[in-house]
TrEMBL record:
Residues 158-454 form the Enoyl reductase (ER) domain. This is alcohol dehydrogenase (NADP(+)). CDD domains: CAD1 (cd05283). The keyword Nucleotide-binding does not apply. Belongs to the zinc-containing alcohol dehydrogenase family. InterPro entries: ADH-like_C, ADH-like_N, ADH_Zn_CS, CAD-like, DUF7704, ER, GroES-like_sf, NAD(P)-bd_dom_sf. PROSITE patterns: ADH_ZINC. Its cofactor is Zn(2+). The keyword Magnesium does not apply. Pfam families: ADH_N (PF08240), ADH_zinc_N (PF00107), DUF7704 (PF24803). It is an enzyme of class 1 (oxidoreductase).
């Protein structure tokens, strides 16, 4: 009897007669496998809940949460090793326990290898910084998972209350390997911010913080980022994404990519999160749309260049602006005044074309060689068919006599409209183009290459945006947007004082 019992109770290992005590069996057969599977589930399918849980229980730490979670998994691994060595493998002959433990170790090992390959060996000696270690048994997690931190921004709830700003926290898109978090220091106020908030461009995704002429500091860079260094002063403009793989993207036309996304108001694929702009504490952007700012350019001078400057610069360089060319800039606002500055810097003869003479002195100070006011009688007569290129920045079609403007162009010369008025647009007849065979086109922002070249040109030639600096606040935002709407700005508002609103 005794012999038979002994034989059936001693499988592979042969520790006859020993059964693991109940608490250990419960732990290894029940808790450990369930926790591991639950952890794997949350890590891959419900990362938000996982991070909310881990974050809630974590002490503040200088190390990013994803790193901390990865390290907690390492701890978990060693814990499992220690236990299995000490207790299981020496103490039981129960094969089910062996299998369960080995399975858990395998899962932990894969997680370990993955996290170490991404984080590097630093995690071994950063033990003192771990802050999620108490959640070590929820399974491993990839370090690329989203971080739960919130950014803060001045948002508007809809076009009916477009001047009513609310300081809210919002969730940025998940942090990717190529992303850069920029802590904002300055942001220009673009005409597009007005069109977007007041409903002039139709439906938008609210609540929304606008602003896409951003300069700040890169405070965090993704593991695959090569173009930007942490701590660098950088800028972000109106575009934040494209596929970087299509015909347009490969030809430095990423601004025309079918998958291009705007810095604010765009819905990030996969997450449904709406991108938020520079009236905020931070912006999270793919490195391709983050630009180092040359040292010679003050932040408030550089910021407006990232949308307004580029929108003027790109059509100028793409359409032959340079020595020997007569170039017109219609509308002396944010884009227009930078258009005059850049066209001059590129060596062209530059004419500012405004509605009245109110801005004539300023245009000359900006470097314009000539000035036309469309309110004057026969304002175009003396210049018919003399211009090589005209860039139109007007943001409205009220009283806009397109024929008169186009009459200025030489044969086959180009008219490039970058302004995006709110209403339906204007009617154009083919006959309009007959007298000079001119070309009529448009232009959207510019490429990364052009942005870098523009910033360098501005630094080299000492080009200075005319900026009115305004500390960011609820009241000041309402005020500057009203003034911009009323064409009362010389020539770009730039928001400052971010530290006072959002902290150091
Ligand atoms: N294509 C792009 O990639 C792109 C990028 C950014 C912005 N935008 C668009 O470009 C436009 C201009 O932006 P912004 O920031 O420069 O605006 P802004 O500072 O308000 O300047 C617009 C200028 O247009 C002129 N203007 C306004 N109404 C006019 C009219 N009825 N006829 C003729 N001229 C008129 C005014 O100049 P005067 O007082 O001198 O007449 C005004 O200063 C906006 O529609 C904006 O959305 C386009
Ligand atoms: Zn803009
Ligand atoms: Zn593309």
């Amino acid at each position: 009897m005794a012999t038979t019992k002994q034989a059936t109770a001693s499988p592979a290992v042969g520790l006859a007669g020993f059964t693991l005590p109940l608490p250990y069996r419960v732990f290894f057969l029940l808790i450990e496998p369930i926790a591991t599977l639950a952890g794997a589930y949350y890590a891959f399918f419900d990362q938000r809940t996982y991070l909310d849980l881990t974050h809630a229980s974590s002490a503040p730490s200088p190390i990013p949460l994803g790193t901390s979670i990865a390290m907690s998994q390492l701890a978990n691994l060693y814990f499992a090793f220690a236990l299995s060595e000490a207790l299981v493998l020496r103490a039981t002959s129960d094969l089910r326990v062996w299998k369960a433990v080995l399975f858990c170790l395998l899962v932990a090992d894969l997680g370990h290898l993955y996290t170490v390959s991404v984080l590097g060996p630093r995690i071994y000696w950063s033990v003192f910084e771990w802050n999620a270690i108490d959640w070590g048994n929820i399974g491993f997690s990839p370090v690329t998972m989203p971080y739960p931190e919130q950014f803060t921004g001045f948002q508007v709830n809809g076009p009916d209350t477009w001047l009513d700003f609310h300081k809210n926290e919002f969730q940025p898109k998940p942090f990717g390997d190529y992303d850069v978090d920029v802590k904002i220091e300055a942001c220009g106020v673009c005409g597009s911010d007005v069109h977007t908030l007041n409903g002039g461009w139709g439906e938008q995704n609210f609540p929304l913080a606008v602003g896409h002429e951003i300069v700040g500091t890169a405070v965090r860079v993704g593991s695959k980022v090569t173009l930007i260094k942490e701590g660098q002063r950088v800028g972000v403009g109106a575009q934040s994404y494209s596929c970087l793989d299509c015909r347009q993207c490969k030809n430095d036309n990423e601004t025309y990519c079918k998958k291009q996304l705007d810095t604010y108001g765009a819905v990030w694929p996969d997450t449904g999160i709406v991108s938020q702009g520079g009236y905020s504490s931070h912006v999270r952007t793919h490195e391709h749309w983050v630009f180092p700012i040359p040292e010679g350019l003050p932040s408030t001078v550089a910021a407006p260049m990232l949308c307004a400057g580029l929108t003027a610069y790109s059509p100028l360089v793409r359409n032959g602006c340079g020595p020997g060319k007569k170039v017109g800039i219609v509308g002396l606002g944010g884009i227009g005044h930078l258009g005059v500055l850049f066209a001059k810097a590129l060596g062209a003869e530059v004419w500012a074309i405004s509605r009245t003479h109110a801005k004539e002195d300023d245009a000359r100070k900006l470097g314009a060689d000539g000035f036309l006011a469309t309110a004057d009688k026969d304002w175009n007569a003396a210049h018919v068919m003399t211009f090589d290129l005209i860039v139109n920045t007007a943001n409205s079609f009220d009283g806009f006599d397109l024929d008169a403007y186009l009459s200025l162009l030489d044969v086959h010369a180009k008219w490039v409209s970058v302004g995006l008025p709110e209403d339906d647009g204007i009617k154009i007849r083919n006959q309009t183009f007959l007298s000079n065979g001119c070309f009529f086109g448009s232009s959207h922002l510019g490429s990364r290459k052009e942005t870098l070249a523009m910033l360098q040109l501005a630094a080299d030639k000492g080009i200075r945006t005319w900026v009115e600096e305004v500390p960011i606040s609820k009241e000041n935002l309402a005020n500057v947007l009203t003034r911009l709407h009323n064409n009362d700005v010389k020539y770009r508002f730039c928001l400052t004082g971010y530290q006072d609103q959002f902290g150091a």
